[in-house]
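Reviewers asked in the last cycle whether our approach scales beyond single polypeptides. To address this, we selected a multi-component target totalling 1012 residues and predicted its structure end to end. The input consisted of the following lines:
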Amino acid sequence: MIKTTILRTKKPRLKSPILVEGLPGVGHVGKLVAEHMVEELGAKKIMEIYSPHFPPQVIVQDDGTIRLVRNELYAYKSKGKQDLLILVGDHQSATNEGHYELCGAFLDIAEEFKVKRIYALGGYGVGQLVETETVLGAANNIKLVRELKEYGVEFRANEPGGGIVGASGLLLGLSELRGIDAVCLMGVTSGYLVDPKSAQAVLKVLCKLLDIDVDMQALSERASEMEKIVAKLREMEEGKTPVSSEEDLRYIG
Amino acid sequence: MIKTTILRTKKPRLKSPILVEGLPGVGHVGKLVAEHMVEELGAKKIMEIYSPHFPPQVIVQDDGTIRLVRNELYAYKSKGKQDLLILVGDHQSATNEGHYELCGAFLDIAEEFKVKRIYALGGYGVGQLVETETVLGAANNIKLVRELKEYGVEFRANEPGGGIVGASGLLLGLSELRGIDAVCLMGVTSGYLVDPKSAQAVLKVLCKLLDIDVDMQALSERASEMEKIVAKLREMEEGKTPVSSEEDLRYIG
Amino acid sequence: MIKTTILRTKKPRLKSPILVEGLPGVGHVGKLVAEHMVEELGAKKIMEIYSPHFPPQVIVQDDGTIRLVRNELYAYKSKGKQDLLILVGDHQSATNEGHYELCGAFLDIAEEFKVKRIYALGGYGVGQLVETETVLGAANNIKLVRELKEYGVEFRANEPGGGIVGASGLLLGLSELRGIDAVCLMGVTSGYLVDPKSAQAVLKVLCKLLDIDVDMQALSERASEMEKIVAKLREMEEGKTPVSSEEDLRYIG
Amino acid sequence: MIKTTILRTKKPRLKSPILVEGLPGVGHVGKLVAEHMVEELGAKKIMEIYSPHFPPQVIVQDDGTIRLVRNELYAYKSKGKQDLLILVGDHQSATNEGHYELCGAFLDIAEEFKVKRIYALGGYGVGQLVETETVLGAANNIKLVRELKEYGVEFRANEPGGGIVGASGLLLGLSELRGIDAVCLMGVTSGYLVDPKSAQAVLKVLCKLLDIDVDMQALSERASEMEKIVAKLREMEEGKTPVSSEEDLRYIG
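The resulting structure, written as structure tokens, was:
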């Protein structure tokens, strides 16, 4: 395999589909949201994307069988006005050039389905434990920025300061060149831990934007579990000097 | 040389061949088994595989001559129902993309010979000295898993936790996409030392699976030598605090 | 996107254009000069250059919109004898091979516009705070060296000792192979801080060479601000032992 | 520039040419020998080899002009039976794949000139100061090994242990696949310092092998200078404990 290879099922007919991307990243926020949606909505897998830009690795599953690392595209036929395409996966590209190639491939698919809007989901790591549920936004045109503000998405000048790196950022940037509306929703998170609470915050906003209902029970339970862990970490912290407290959490999640 | 290049002898006729892969890896378990089989069975070299994805390196041999690092394919015509192809080599690919390309090339060869099953051999490093002879398995379909269990191969849910990385893993993953049955046999090993004892354990299982006999004398002797070294290391250990004992062995093998 | 991609406006007619390159580098000297010229001269953007050799990153702008990292080419129609092309950007190539490819693409553009001379701008980091305004030069033929000396550009045998690495160096080297005159102007700078003062020194020489006037107010103000910061750093230094003084500034800029 | 590019003069007619390679490496032994030969023999440059696999760098020369890093091929018409091609350069490839590509290009040239033998020159770093003049050999067939032994070249089983890495090794390995005789002559050297004395030892053997005379004055002077430096280092050493002595020289050359 020397090229990115896509295995497809029969192409479904989708009405005005929206593409939601949730690949692994900071706090696994995007991945948690997108995988939760696939599960709760019962979306159907329509593509498997393999690439030499992913690590040369197979995942061993519960039953002893393996599968090659990949990205997957799911389709969800809604009762509302617009259907969904949901992109999830084991890895993002392992190389810079691979990011450009893979995001180009994702947008070829988006164009094939005449996707008019993309929601790229991710986390924004701020380096300390986060109390509030904040969703930061970025978009590839100003109309989208205005719309998102009405849904409670926050915009901060020049934030994230280092820009948005990886698949989510590149999807927005390359979409602009193809004239596709694209939005990045970033759950503010510590960056130290897998963060289902931040994922919940992103999912709430996304559900409003998409005008759909998604049961949040499973995500909520994972958030509760994680909050207990964080509470314990905080207790441990309080026994220490405040200066070193953040340092100690850095390598946990 | 800008592409992977294969030098071939006249193509042998093989009946229902099985491909055994034993490239260098954890504890050199796979390499030890495959090279031992080539030696003991008197298998004949039928291909040399050179690639810019290997390091730019030649090996200096005993007599002062050199040879370019490469992988090699050997053929063994058995008296039983199925012949063998055995893949050995100096290196695996030095890059991610190279792994995909080379494993693709190996599977092109497998298809050319109508190989129906692949045994990818390797070691599974557990980070401490191992007493028992355990062979862990993974396979690219559930029928194979069931069959292997009958031969004493162990399967543990989600183990190895990091998946299987490199040629062995990729051979399984890419085989699945081509509809070829493939199995990974991993000798449990410390990961610190070259491990002929673990190789013996793998070879025993493999011989049963292939229904062939392979003299184990040479491998057994190497295992004995290594056991003496390990025994000495253990003695050294006992003079120390148990906490640091493993640490001291880490950079030996 | 698997190739470098150039978006163009209608091609302007330019008389005997000179190409000025100011991509990010040591002290951001070249970037400061080139961006200042674009601003002050009101040059018009005629090309956007995107490439998989840039990082997979978008920049978040003040208004919450993003743009994909890129290089940009601006054109300035002067009242004098020669028009200008000015190359600026967010990044240089992230890989060695990418540098060769991108500089090749820049020179294709230069040839398309029949550019006869290139000024590549940069900084030369000397590892300590710099008092004087020195502009070091290098050129791809001896006639240019002689001409530049008359404009106060300094030449020092075998300096910079490590050669000139990256886009500026490569533009000179590859230009020579295409028979295009090219000059590198390097503002001597500490290398620790963004250096608008060094940028001013380079701009003064460049204006004389191009026989144009560029208002330096904005750059001068930034230089004053930076001088205040440097003065504070010096004060901090004086409270310390002279040996360690430079060390302490090393990771600030 | 996205490919290796070769600039050529008119092709000279050479009788039974021998290719001598001396690119930068351990102790710069090969480079010192090959550049010395070009100088003393008055060999003529017939090719410049540029490549995106070299670093993106220009070298600033004494007069302020630059030149792009490259490899160069020189031709020497001897009065004896065989002419010489001498390969020198600023860098070896910066990537693994580049080594394979460039050595392939060198061998294309060798075949074009019907070169029948290649001498690849290098240093063999042993990690401590070396008193004796030893030249270690390796060759791509056993006849060459026997011949070299008669000229005092040493062969040690499996040495260098790590094989020969880079252009010299790869030239031998790839030559074998093309049926070209190739020899590697390695001057034993500390590996810490540029080593003109080791270069002299290699040159002496090479002159005997080629049956030519090369004035060694210049190389001898450089060796004397370096010996003074080494003597000083030894004095410094003697004031210290013998255990740490080698360590202290490690980062000088």
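Chain A has a mean pLDDT of 92. We regard this as preliminary and will revisit it once experimental data from Aim 1 are available.
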